[in-house]
Amino acid sequence: MGISLRHVLEISKNLEIFPVPLTHSYIRAVVNLRGEILPVLSVKEIIGMPQSVETTRLIILETNLGKLAVEVDSVYGVVRIKEDQLEPNPMNSIYSDYLSNVAQTKDRFISIIDLEKLFPERE
Length: 123
Prior knowledge:
By secondary structure, the chain is mostly beta strands. It folds into 2 domains: 8-72, CATH 2.40.50.180; 83-118, no CATH class. It has helices at residues 43-47, 115-118; strands at 8-12, 17-19, 27-33, 36-42, 57-63, 66-72, 86-88, 99-104, 109-113. The longest helix is centred in the middle third of the chain and has 5 residues, at 43-47. It is globular and about 40 Å long. The mean pLDDT is 84.
């Protein structure tokens, strides 16, 4: 899966996380990012995907809900995808509601997460 870089502020793996008891299961913890306290969310928990491996990195994002961190299994790199390489999401699965597009690169297909659907604005 991929995330549009226009939402990514940074990728980190060395932030100390502090668990938050008595909250939603998708809120894993909070982190202190240079004096700013950010929630750490599990995308897998939000969309109902099983947790298969231990999280190794955090991606700091700017979303409809503000700045937050999401857990990811790993980061394979940054891939430049042109607009004309993006196709509407053709899949029909329980995860489809959270995907905006798919892109075919030289090596693989990448499903692009729709952060507006994953983190809708509060009313």
